[in-house]
């Protein structure tokens, strides 16, 4: 499986994972810049949950069931991104979608359409102020 990072902003990163010509997973990572709610930890722990300094939201959207190999690849990818961060709370939340995400990339309007679709799918609020920054490492 291969991945491409489509954008990185001050708060979000977005990746598309492919296998051959097929999109397999769309991954949106959001830095909340705040501690996780107590309810986040209580999903995983029977006892009191003390949140770490930062909560990173990771959402993976797919339109089909992942194979064990694909799931392991995604989990290893996310773990690799954050393994050196000492005080974060993170969990991959899988979402089911109906179809592959398509857009007219890399035109400016296509990029704006993609961000709108991402916000709709992930119920997020990714803000891309200037589509021309797509050519930069960090997009604004």
Features:
five-stranded mixed β-sheet; 3 helices; 140 residues; 5 strands; alpha+beta
- Helical/strand content category: alpha+beta
Proportion of helical residues: 25-40%
**What percent strand?**
25-35%
Query: End-to-end span in angstroms?
Result: 28 Å
Describe the sheet with the most strands: 5 strands, mixed
Whole-number mean pLDDT: 83
How would you describe this structure to a colleague?
The protein has 140 residues and is an alpha+beta fold. Helices cover 25% and strands 31% of the residues. It has three helices and five strands; from the N terminus they run E-E-E-H-E-H-E-H. The protein has helices at 38-42, 68-82, 108-122, and strands at 2-8, 12-19, 22-31, 54-62, 88-96. Strands 1-2-3-4-5 form a five-stranded mixed β-sheet, with helices on both faces. Strand 4 (54-62), helix 2 and strand 5 (88-96) form a beta-alpha-beta unit. It is globular, with a radius of gyration of 16 Å. The mean pLDDT is 83.
Give a nutshell description of this structure.
The protein contains three helices and five strands. With 140 residues, the protein is of the alpha+beta class.
Chart the SSEs and their pairings.
Blueprint lengths: L1 E7 L3 E8 L2 E10 L6 H5 L11 E9 L5 H15 L5 E9 L11 H15 L18
């Amino acid at each position: 499986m291969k991945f491409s990072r489509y954008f990185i902003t001050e708060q979000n990163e977005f990746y598309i994972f492919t296998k051959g010509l097929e999109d397999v997973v769309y991954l949106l990572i959001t830095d909340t810049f705040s501690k996780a709610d107590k309810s986040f930890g209580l999903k995983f722990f029977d006892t009191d949950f003390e949140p770490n300094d930062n909560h990173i939201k990771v959402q993976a959207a797919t339109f089909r069931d992942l194979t064990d190999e694909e799931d392991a690849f995604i989990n290893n990818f996310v773990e690799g991104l954050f393994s050196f961060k000492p005080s974060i709370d993170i969990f991959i939340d899988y979402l089911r979608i109906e179809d592959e995400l398509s857009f007219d990339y890399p035109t400016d309007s296509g990029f704006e359409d993609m961000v709108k679709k991402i916000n709709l799918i992930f119920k997020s609020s990714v803000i891309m102020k200037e589509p021309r920054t797509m050519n930069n490492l960090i997009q604004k």
